[in-house]
Amino acid sequence: MLQISALQLAELLTGIGRAQAAVVNGLESEMAGVRSGRIVPAVQNVSHSRDHPEPTLVDLPVRILLASMGRAGGADTAAVARDLERLFSGAAPAAAPAAAPAAAPAAAPAENLDFSKPG
Length: 119
Description:
By secondary structure, the protein is mainly α. It contains five helices and no strands. The longest helix has 25 residues, at about 5-30. The radius of gyration is 15 Å and the shape is globular.
């Protein structure tokens, strides 16, 4: 049975995110405004950044795509590998207290999308 490491899977997902971003860039070059007017808002909605500050296994590929479409040039493979290890370990992320304030800092969701930051 084939077994791949979290880093290998992160490299694969990062490559897929870059390929998807290239398709979006191609669409933008053919139909000006489609990226910022339709594609990015739809992808941001699917990423659940506001609902889940920590990416879930379902949200992680979408967030990698968002990072690939950003100015930073793509997701940091090591950070993606750490997220994968956290997700596959079965450890639940630190849950917010039930009485936590509803308003989070405005920068919090965007920080989770920047995979280029060193760990």
